[in-house]
Each structure stands twice: as structure tokens, then as C-alpha cells.
Amino acid sequence: MLDADWGFAGAQPQSGQHHVGIRIIMKIIKTLIVTLMLFISTLAAAEDCIFIPGKTLCGVSIKSSSEQFINTLGEPDGKINMGPARVGLVYGPKLLLIFSSNKLYEVHSWETNSNIDFWEYVRNSKSATSKRLIFNNWSPWGMSRKQMELHEKEFPLVDADQFVEHRKAEKANMTIFYSPFYNPQNPPITDLNEWALYKVQHISIRFGR
Predict the structure, then answer these.
(1) Long-range Cβ contact pairs of 176-183 (< 8 A, separation 24 or more)
(2) What angle do CA 43, 47, 52 make, to 5 degrees?
(3) Which one, 28, 52, 168, 179, has least CB within 10 Å?
(4) Which CATH architecture does the domain made up of 48-207 adopt?
């Protein structure tokens, strides 16, 4: 009897400890799930904006309205009034979508953007967006003018000067701005062969209406 009582009494705290252990494990699992979901959402917000000429931008048809872009990309960091029926949606410091009469008009993207007007919109943003324009299966960022020539067939050259190239894209016109990135202690680059070393700094695409 004593043995039976002792065994029953000894089992009780073990059962309680077992339930406490399960609750702790469940809390840990829930915490891990929430952390994972936040991590995934951050990755989604940081995804680049893919441009497929003549078809889509950021996974949205280029014929879509600003509301449809917002439904896919989420609320922008800021909205810029650019005149009658024209508005710019700022997504981080490297991507600006411009709509005219609620249709996609232009997209701008930067390697680095020091424009204080844009930073005013993104500096206090809670989002982790760092979206940047890339093309269907390759990124222009870090490329030199010489390397961009490899994509001449996809984006034929129309006109150019020392710092700018105008190229044709399907149902759009593209402007690429280059930066020399030369050492300030050295003389400015003036040789045409040296211009080929300039790096992509800013890309603007204007869509056909």
C-alpha cells in the first residue's frame, strides 16, 4: 500500500513537469514560426524588381494601374505629386515608379541615390525594401559600358554621349546614366576608350502609351 501510494505520489510531479515541458516546446516552436515568417517577408520586400520588356515590371503587367502595383508590391515608402494626373511611388532609395493618368509612365532605378528628396521618404520607413531594377535574367548593376554592349541585341543603341546612352526596349525607351568612378587624385577621364570603363549608375525606362 505504501509502495502504491509512493508510486502514485511520485508520478504526479513527473506528469506536471511533462506538461510544462510541452508548453515550453510549443512556445519555442511558435516563436520560431513567427521569426521565420518575418524573415520570409523581409526577403520578399527586398526582392529586386524584374523587368521583362514588353510584358511585366516587378511581376506586374506594364499595362496595370498604380493600385495593381501597390497590391503586389505593398504600400510605397512615399508618394510624390509630380503634376496633374502624375504621381511617383517610392520603394526604398533605389526604385521609383511614375504613373501618369494611373498608367505606368516611367521607372527609375539607381546604383546609389543621394537625392535628399528621396531619402526624406525612406529614412524613417519601417519597411526593409531595397528593390532595384534588374532585367529578365541579368543585372546591369556594376556593369561597365563595355559589358553593356554584350546586350546590344536586346537593347539596341540609339544615341549616346560621354555619360549617357539611349537604348531601345520593346514598347519602351531606356536611358542609362554612367559614372566614371575614377580616382579624384587622377585627371578626369577624357579618352573614348576609357569611357568604356564607366559603370552603370542610373537607369530610366519610359513606356510607350
Answers:
(1) 176/140, 176/148, 176/200, 176/202, 176/203, 177/201, 177/202, 177/203, 177/204, 178/145, 179/111
(2) 155
(3) 28
(4) Sandwich (2.60)
Question: Could you tell me the residue ranges of all domains in the chain?
Answer: 1-46, 48-207
pTM: 0.70
By the 10 Å C-beta count (0-12 exposed, 13-18 middle, 19+ buried), 123 is classed as exposed
Q: Which parts of 47-110 fold into alpha helices (H)?
A: 66-73
The continuous run of DSSP H or E covering 206 comes out as: strand 199-207
β-bridge mates for residue 168, sequence order: 173
Distance between CA atoms of residues 202 and 20, nearest Å? 58
Q: Smallest Cα–Cα separation from 177: which of 163, 161, 189?
A: 163
Smallest CA-to-CA distance from 96 within 106, 86, 85 is with 106
Q: The C-alpha cell of 79 is what? A: 508618394
**Distance separating alpha carbons of residues 118 and 89, to the nearest angstrom:** 10
Cβ(91)–Cβ(110) below 8 Å:
no
Instruction: Please report the DSSP string for 97-124 in residue order.
Output: EEEETTEEEEEEEESS---HHHHHHHTT
| Number of neighbouring beta carbons within 10 Å of residue 209 | 9
All cell numbers assigned to 84: 496633374
Residue ranges in the chain modelled with pLDDT below 50: 1-11, 13, 34-46
Grid cell in block for residue 193 = 576608350
